[in-house]
Amino acid sequence: MGAPLLRRGLAFWGILLLMRTIPERSTRRPLLGGVSSFACYYGPGALARLADYDVAILQVAHYTPQALATLRAAGVRVAAYLSVGEVTAIEAESAGEAWLLRDSAQGTPVVNPRWGTLLVDCRSAAWQAYLIEVRIPALLGRGAEGLFLDTVDVPEAYPEVRSGLEALLTRLRARFPERPLLINRGFSILNTALTVADGFVFEAFTTYYDGAAYHAWTGDDLAWTSRMAVQLRQVAEGRPILALDYAAPQDRALRERAVRRARAYEFVPFVSTVNLDRLP
Length: 280
Known about the structure:
It contains 9 helices and 13 strands. It has a single domain (12-22, 39-272), classed as TIM Barrel (Alpha-Beta Barrel). Residues 1-22 have low confidence and may be disordered. The longest helix has 18 residues, at 125-142. Helix 6 runs parallel beside helix 7 (190-196). By secondary structure, it is α/β, with parallel strands linked by helices. It has helices at 12-20, 47-50, 65-73, 89-94, 125-142, 162-175, 190-196, 219-235, 252-264, and strands at residues 38-41, 55-58, 77-83, 86-87, 111-112, 117-119, 146-150, 181-184, 199-203, 207-209, 214-216, 241-246, 268-272.
């Protein structure tokens, strides 16, 4: 989906939740190890470049099964992008809008204005069944080894869907026990995420895109990312944490700043454009 709709202030609830509850230690055997590089790339092609990374998060529809098999034969762990909490208008229309989260006052579907996507009510049994029985098998059947679970931050703004999202993630893990799962952020559901994830992506860790330009976090926002980084490192139990940041291709200083800070926290860095259509 690219950069999330960064809800300044609302994201603060993630740290409050984390401070209020001590995450239980995971008994799962992580399926990802030894990750020193990763790419998050939603464009087509670039197979030769992608072969240089340990992990590649891709829109697998851009690739043939043969191309993905070539990457995996080169030792690349291929994770298919999967939006758990949002869908495009086309996807919503095909389902008759049965999955959608609706505004409690207006009764209209809730829209992410950044991307024009529609938020999903993860409590929907139909949505859970579609992901687990249709969408995920299609992604894995195309040749992905695992999944990158995006848009799991909906409960930060809509707490009523938290139970449904946690149930969905638990079902997904049980249905695909040997498939590596990466979770994007997920701070507001961290207890559940720790029982599900084989690694974490911290999107917009040091830099972000505001719809017009790229910036580095400063002040309270920067301090918040630092606190969350320390907390996540403490509970990740050695699982890889991948820092996904954004900068203009020509802004070398901002790119290097993001890389340095990620490595200072022992995160694996990757910096691209907001549309994730460029490899550095």
